[in-house]
């Protein structure tokens, strides 16, 4: 039960981080430096691109139609939305399948539900990890490409938050699955050991019986007669 609680805490924390990464700004960031202060900061996420000047005023432009977007942005959007949805269902199933809750049916059914929740968390972490890695690969490939003459960006803070949430989701889901597997393995081992012990006890009893057998007790009248005296009817 304590392993399940720890796994649920890790996976839920990772899902919260992944969910907060989707609308977060600064997926990629670039700046124009002046002599003393930063004159302008360019940043972008999955939904818009903005520029912030030294006074703190931001001018943003939403991305055009989804069909006109770059392929990697569409893929990152789909993966992040899938990660959020999988994490939500994983949280619900984990609450139902954990041993500390009173819903979900029998122990065998709750174990299956908890294992399914762990798989959802693992898939959620992998989707978020893939989205952040794909976005970071595009940034680094443009940054180190000498033939790329447009504005070059660097990795933003949102990517690191997404990577951290992905790792927590994968760890929490893995611990949740392994805790259920260990419980099932222990119960199966105990059952087998008891069965083997009882079988060996029966076989040893049969062998002992075949080696030395006691004669059946004699209940004839001659054997019972000496046991009665004159006070027996009193």
At a glance:
The protein has five helices and five strands; from the N terminus they run H-E-E-E-E-H-H-E-H-H. It is of the alpha+beta class.
* SSE run: HEEEEHHEHH
- Residue share in β-strands: 5-15%
Instruction: Please provide the count of β strands.
Output: 5
Please work out how many helical segments DSSP would assign: 5
Uncertain regions spanning at least 5 consecutive residues: 188-212, 220-225
The spatial strand order of the largest sheet comes to 4-3-2-1-5
Helix content: 55-70%
Task: Identify the overall geometry.
Answer: elongated
Report how far apart the termini are: 66 Å
Provide mean pLDDT, rounded: 79
Class by alpha and beta content? alpha+beta
Largest sheet: 5 strands, antiparallel
Whole-angstrom Rg: 35 Å
Describe what this molecule looks like in 3D.
With 234 residues, the chain is α+β, with helices and mostly antiparallel strands. It has helices at residues 2-21, 71-97, 107-143, 157-211, 221-224; strands at residues 28-33, 38-44, 48-53, 58-62, 154-155. It has a five-stranded antiparallel beta sheet. Helix 2 packs antiparallel against helix 3 (107-143). The longest helix is centred in the C-terminal third of the chain and has 55 residues, at 157-211. Residues 188-212 and 220-225 have low confidence and may be disordered.
């Amino acid at each position: 039960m304590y392993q399940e609680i720890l796994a649920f805490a890790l996976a839920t924390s990772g899902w919260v981080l992944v969910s907060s990464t989707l609308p977060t700004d600064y997926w990629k960031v670039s700046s124009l430096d002046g002599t003393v202060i930063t004159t302008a900061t360019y940043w972008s996420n999955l939904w818009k691109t903005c520029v912030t000047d030294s006074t703190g005023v931001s001018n943003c432009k939403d991305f055009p139609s989804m069909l006109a977007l770059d392929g990697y942005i569409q893929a990152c959007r789909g993966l992040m939305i899938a990660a959020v949805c999988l994490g939500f269902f994983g949280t619900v199933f984990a609450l139902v399948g954990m041993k500390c809750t009173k819903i979900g049916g029998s122990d065998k059914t709750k174990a299956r539900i908890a294992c399914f929740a762990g798989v959802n968390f693992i898939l959620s972490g992998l989707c978020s990890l893939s989205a952040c890695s794909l976005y970071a690969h595009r940034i680094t490939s443009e940054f180190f490409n000498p033939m790329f003459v447009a504005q070059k960006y660097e990795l933003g803070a949102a990517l690191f938050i997404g990577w951290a949430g992905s790792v927590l989701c994968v760890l929490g889901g893995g611990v949740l699955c392994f805790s259920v597997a260990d419980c099932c393995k222990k119960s199966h081992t105990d059952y087998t050991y008891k069965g083997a012990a009882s079988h060996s006890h029966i076989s040893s009893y049969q062998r002992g019986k075949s080696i030395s057998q006691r004669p059946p007790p004699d209940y004839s009248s001659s054997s019972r007669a000496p046991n009665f005296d004159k006070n027996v009817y009193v």
